[in-house]
Design goal:
about 110 residues; mainly alpha
């Protein structure tokens, strides 16, 4: 697998897929049992259309920053306390290391959108 392909899949499934899931849940859920959902749901329901759009944009930023941070850790460009060794990310059929520029590739893809 090429690093670029992995990044496109992660963007599709992690960023876009999760954001779509959260938006659908927020738009269709009237009651919740989870304490976090119980807290956010009444607020979201009362948001104006513009406020809902802004809230979802904020969620997207959080998702992008989180995935970028994880990719930086995997690339070895972001420090994480307790991780002393470099990661070597390969696929089952190819031993070529693919985690050297994942964070940069991901952020480049996000900028293109």
């Amino acid at each position: 697998m090429k690093p670029e392909d992995l990044i496109k899949i992660l963007n599709r499934d992690v960023i876009k897929g999760n954001l779509e899931l959260y938006q659908n849940l927020l738009d269709t859920t009237n009651e919740a049992t989870d304490p976090v959902w119980k807290g956010i749901l009444p607020m979201y329901i009362n948001f104006s259309k513009e406020e809902k759009e802004t809230f979802l944009k904020f969620l997207k930023i959080v998702e992008i920053n989180t995935l970028s941070h994880v990719l930086g850790i995997l690339d070895g460009t972001t420090y994480a306390e307790g991780i002393e060794n470099d990661f070597i990310l390969t696929t089952e059929n190819d031993n070529k290391k693919i985690n050297e520029d994942l964070q940069d590739l991901f952020l480049g893809l996000i900028e293109e959108e």
